[in-house]
Amino acid sequence: MTRKLGSKKQRALEILQRLKHLYPDAKCSLDYETPVQLLIATILSAQCTDERVNKVTPELFRQYPNADAIANADLSDIEALVRSTGFYRNKAKNIQAACRMIVTEFNGEVPRSMAELTRLPGAARKTANVVLAHAYGINAGVTVDTHVKRLSGRLGLTQNTDPIRIEQDLIKLLPQPDWENWSIRLIYHGRAVCDARKPACDRCTLADLCPSGSKAEQPGKGERAKGKGGTLNKAEQPGKGEREKGKGRLDNSLDDAEVSHRS
Ligand code: SF4
């Protein structure tokens, strides 16, 4: 059974409701106990799976439980502990520099504003969105990771490929209290159904709302997808920059640019 695709906003709201129904208990899959630990785990999740990050953080946080401890640690110790997450030298350097700034400028507490958070080494807008939403319940923006980027494009909710522009497009379509709800559930759906290389459109609950889904009718004027309806168009196929090298890679990850942020 197919139906006509509505306006972008109508579809975004309907998709949001379905995602809430599909993944009622969706939560951040990084393990942490404090805002500092969430910040560190999010920095480590760049180009790495959350599962892998969750394997290294228990020992990291056991040895260095807070910003002060990380700030005063031997950098080589941190590097050794986070090595398996990849880009470990950069990540260790950023984590320590961020913790030093937290200690010296923010009294040991992770700041609660986008402007302050994005001053921390290793923390660009995406990291700040995750920390603000999950540590403090502040919906300052929409987290755009590789899954959110891919699915928002396939769902025809953005024509942009730059995460900052995608975020701005999504902000216009979604109610602010649901900004992080959207991202976390879209990440779940990206992992479970809308795979980068093999999206399972035949069993996707969003197919009738998706211009890239096999069940969708052609979108109307102004809503027309970039390619022909019923198939993923070329721009939305996983390309060089989007392709995931291995199964489960890049979950909730940051861009390379973010890894080297202020490095
Ligand atoms: S219909 Fe296909 S492309 Fe669209 S969201 Fe579902 S799995 Fe992804």
Outline of the structure:
The chain has twelve helices and no strands. With 263 residues, the protein is mainly alpha-helical.
How much of the sequence lies in strands comes to under 5%
Which structural category do the helix and sheet elements fall into? mainly alpha
Mean pLDDT: 84
Query: What's the number of domains?
Result: 2
- What is the architecture of the largest domain at the second tier of CATH? Orthogonal Bundle
Overall geometry: elongated
- Which spans of ≥5 residues are poorly predicted at pLDDT below 50? 215-263
Within the CATH hierarchy, at the fold level, what is the topology of the largest domain?
Endonuclease Iii, domain 2
Report the major sheet.
Answer: none
Bound molecules: iron/sulfur cluster
Helix content: 40-55%
The CATH class label of the largest domain is Mainly Alpha
How do the SSEs run, as a string of H and E? HHHHHHHHHHHH
- Number of extended strands: 0
CATH superfamily of the largest domain: Helix-hairpin-Helix base-excision DNA repair enzymes (C-terminal)
Total of DSSP H or I helical runs spanning 4+ residues? 12
Report the end-to-end length measured between terminal Cα atoms: 52 Å
